[in-house]
Amino acid sequence: MKLITCWILLLLCLIASLYPFPSPTPLTTFAASNIAVVFCLLHCSMWAGWSTTIKIFLVTWLTGWFTEVLGVNFAFLYGPYHYADLLSGPLVLGVPPMAMLIYFPLGYACFIMGRAIVGGLSTKVSGMRLLGVAIFAGLAMTTHDFSNDPFMSTVKGIWVWPNGGAYFGVPLQNFIGWFVLTSFFSIIVGLIANGAKAMSYVSIPKAPTFFLPAILLYLIFELPQMLRPILLEATPINLSGSGIAMFATTIPVMAALLALYGQHAQEEGRQ
Q1: Which residue, among 122, 115, 138, 94, has the nearest Cα to 200 in the 3D structure?
Q2: Region class of 157: left (phi > 0), else alpha (psi between -120 and 50), else beta
Q3: How many structural domains comprise the chain?
Q4: Torsion angles phi and psi, residue 205, rounded to 5
Q5: Per-residue confidence at 266, pLDDT binned at 50, 70, 90?
Q6: Is residue 106 a part of any domain in this protein?
Q7: Quick one: which H or E segment has residue 13?
Q8: Which domain, by its residues, includes 106?
C-alpha cells in the first residue's frame, strides 16, 4: 500500500511540475517540491526506516540552508548572489527555508541512483564505493543545476547573480560550489545509511520496482527543462537547458536502471 502511495505521489509531482507550465507561480513550484519531499520521506522510510529518514532529511535541508546563508551573506562557495524578496517564500537570513526543501528529494534520487550503480541498495557501502556514490550524486545534481539555474535566475529572477557569469549570466563558481556541497552531504547521507539501525531495514532485499519511482523522480525534475523550447520559446537559454536535460541528465538515470535490473537478473540467474 505504501509503495502504491509513492506512485500516486510521483504522478502528482509530475502534474504539479508541468501545470501551469507557461506561467508557474511560487505556489505551484512549492507544491511540486513539497509533494516530492513527502514522496521521498515515505520511500526512504520504507528503505531505511523513519529515524534514518528524518536524519537524512535534516542533514540535507540544514546543510543546504546553512551554506546558502553563507553564500548570500559572504559570497561563500557559490559566488555573490541573492534571492529576490518573497518569490521563493519568506527569507530567513536572506535565504528562503522553503526553497531549501528541494535539496532532500533531488539529493535522495541521485543518492539512490548512485547506490544502484555500485550495488549498494541492500548492503553497506564504504571506502571508495562510498566516495564514488557521493561523487556520482554530486555530478547528477550539478548536471541538473546546469539545466535549470540560468532559467530560474537570468529569466525568472528568483535568485540574482549581480556580477553575472559566462553561462547565461551564471558564474562557473556556482557549479563548482554546488558539486562540492552535494558531494559532501552525500557522503554524510551514506554514512547515516550505513548505521546499524538503518541497515536493519536496508539489508532486507527489495525488488527493482521498489527503487524505480525514486529514480524516475529525477527525470520528473528534468521534464520542465526538456519542454521549455517546445512549450515556451526556443531561446538559447531554453535550448541549452533542454539539451542538457535530454542528453546529459538521462545518462545517470539509464546507468542506474541498467545496473538495477542487470543485478536483479544476475541474482535470479544464480537462484
Answers
A1: 122
A2: left
A3: 1
A4: -60, 140
A5: low
A6: yes
A7: helix 2-18
A8: 36-264
Strands 82-83 and 159-160: antiparallel
Tell me, yes or no, whether 17 lies in a domain. Answer: no
Please check the confidence at residue 94 and state whether its pLDDT lies above 90.
Answer: yes
What the block records as the C-alpha cell of 267 is 541474482
Q: Is residue 14 part of a domain?
A: no
Average pLDDT over residues 163-192: 96
Long-range contact list for 92-100, CB < 8 A, 24+ apart?
Answer: 93/69, 94/69, 95/65, 95/68, 95/69, 97/65, 98/30, 98/33, 99/33, 100/61, 100/64, 100/65, 100/68
80-84: average pLDDT: 93
The whole-number pLDDT of residue 90 equals 85
Residue 44 half-sphere exposure toward CB, CA atoms < 13 A: 28
Helix extents (H) in 82-235: 103-118, 127-150, 172-193, 196-202, 208-231
Question: Which of 220, 229, 218 minimizes the C-alpha distance to 252?
Answer: 218
Distance set, CA 210 to CA 40, 42, 136, 167, 189 (Å): 12, 12, 21, 38, 20
Residue 99: its pLDDT value, please?
Answer: 84
Q: Tell me if 27 is assigned to some domain.
A: no
CA dist 129 and 164 (Å) reads 37
Burial (CB count <10 Å: 0-12, 13-18, 19+), residue 263: middle
87 strand-pairing partners: 89
Tell me: the pLDDT tens digits for 25-62? 666 667 777 899 999 999 999 999 999 999 999 999 99
